[in-house]
Amino acid sequence: MQFKFIDGGICAVKGVSAWGVKQDKYGLALIKANGSAAGVFTRNRVIAAPLVLTREHLEGGRLSAVIANSGNANAFTGPEGMEDARAMAKLAARGPGLDERTVAVASTGVIGHRLDLNIISSQVGAVTAGLTGSANGSTAAARAIMTTDTFSKEVAVELPNGTRIGGIAKGSGMIAPNMGTMLAFLYTDTAMDPGELGKYLKRAVDKSFNMVVVDGDTSTNDMVLITATGQMGHTDPEEFGQGLEAVCTALARMIAKDGEGATCLIEARVTGAANESDAVLAAKAVITSPLVKSAIFGHDPNWGRVVAAVGYSGAEMEPDCISLMFANNYASASLVEKGKIVSTPEDTLKEIMGSKEVIIMVDLGVGSGCATAWGCDLSYDYVRINAEYTT
User: Fold this and answer.
1) Greatest CA span in the chain, whole angstroms?
2) Active site residue 181
3) Which of 187, 97, 109 is CA-nearest to residue 144?
4) Domain limits, the chain
5) 256 neighbors 215 (Cβ within 8 angstroms)
6) Residue 165, exposed/middle/buried by CB under 10 A (0-12, 13-18, 19+)?
7) Among 123, 196, 343, 370, which residue's CB has the most CB atoms within a 10 Å radius?
8) Distance separating alpha carbons of residues 108 and 270, to the nearest angstrom
């Protein structure tokens, strides 16, 4: 299907206005859009208070706004954390005159510290007053939710009938399959009931955010929400699904590229697996492996680490059937063909390994299953950033 990427992020979608502010490490974003809604959340057994409240508010199948703060996760904070999350919903609803039971709440930052509601209260007026449907609103909101991110993440597409889908996200560390410390807020101006919206959201998340690994840690605060304003009427569901997957994939790639301390984006493409589930296992194993990630950081074509990761992934594998290539956007180098080691020109391999994006292509040669996963290299700066996170 043909669709085009457009500017404007979430504010490219009809019926969406947004704004955000950032003061040192503390940010606050507000997104106003009324419509049917759905969400997916962390699979960590420790679930932050904002997620508990947002799932409760989503039971009605509609949202009118999202309020999100950065700098404090409001996780592992007990009953007081729930009180603070409800207070955030009330603050968001008060200015625009919304029903607080239709406000989603999201938080990201340090775990185990109670929110400073004085900071949020001091920011909410400016955020409410700044709400705008212009592209600046999307960018301001995307910047406000950043923590260790080095750049804001926003994207939008337009489908052939004019329907638009936009999203913003944050995520840099504590990123693992089942989503990581990441927030994503998606919007569309199609009309769709909450159940169908949730079905397409889950499918898109499984192929995008759930295929990203930065460090293997699964957060307490992962949240992806989608709201459909309905202002463009109904859209072909499959076209919508493909557009949503494109938006989520673009954001997922940005998160992987912006991994804490990252110098290189890694894309693992697995084909020839016994089935799709096996392909997912193998692709995730490659991008999760600390040894593979370290080799990419050192520009070391140590392909044996890739084969080893695939071997322990749980996917069906026959050593005599596997083929392996390293590539970037301009060149490729075959390393193994059906279990046999291939001599590769050093100049080509050196060029590939020094790229900002390294593509690892694995053909298991046992079936037709395929999957793609994204990650980043493991650098000295990753340790430094996380060693100093609260100090």
Assistant:
1) 68
2) yes
3) 109
4) 4-253, 265-387
5) no
6) buried
7) 123
8) 32
pLDDT tens per residue, the chain (391 residues)?
Answer: 678 999 999 999 999 999 999 998 899 999 999 999 999 987 766 788 999 999 999 999 999 999 999 999 898 899 999 999 999 999 999 989 999 999 999 999 888 889 999 999 999 999 999 999 999 999 999 999 998 788 999 999 999 999 999 999 997 644 443 333 589 999 999 999 999 999 999 999 999 988 987 544 455 678 899 999 999 999 999 999 999 999 999 999 998 888 767 789 999 999 999 999 999 999 999 999 999 999 999 999 999 999 999 999 999 999 999 999 999 988 999 999 999 999 888 888 989 999 999 999 999 999 999 999 998 888 777 667 666 655 5
DSSP assigned state of 132: B
Query: What CATH fold (topology level) applies to the domain 4-253?
Result: L-amino peptidase D-ALA esterase/amidase (3.60.70)
Cβ burial of 319 (10 Å; 0-12, 13-18, 19+) is: exposed
Burial of 343 (0-12, 13-18, 19+ CB in 10 A): exposed
Q: Are 93 and 99 in contact (CB under 8 A)?
A: yes
Tokens of residue 319, six digits: 């050593």
What type of residue is 178?
N
- For the record, the structure tokens of 379 come out as 């650098």
Which one of the listed residues 181, 190, 249, 288 is annotated catalytic?
181
**Angle CA(328)–CA(332)–CA(336) in degrees, nearest 5?**
125
Q: Quote the tokens at residue 117.
A: 């509601």
E strands, the chain, in order: 4-6, 17-23, 26-41, 62-72, 103-110, 153-158, 164-170, 183-188, 212-213, 223-228, 265-273, 323-327, 332-337, 340-341, 357-363, 369-376
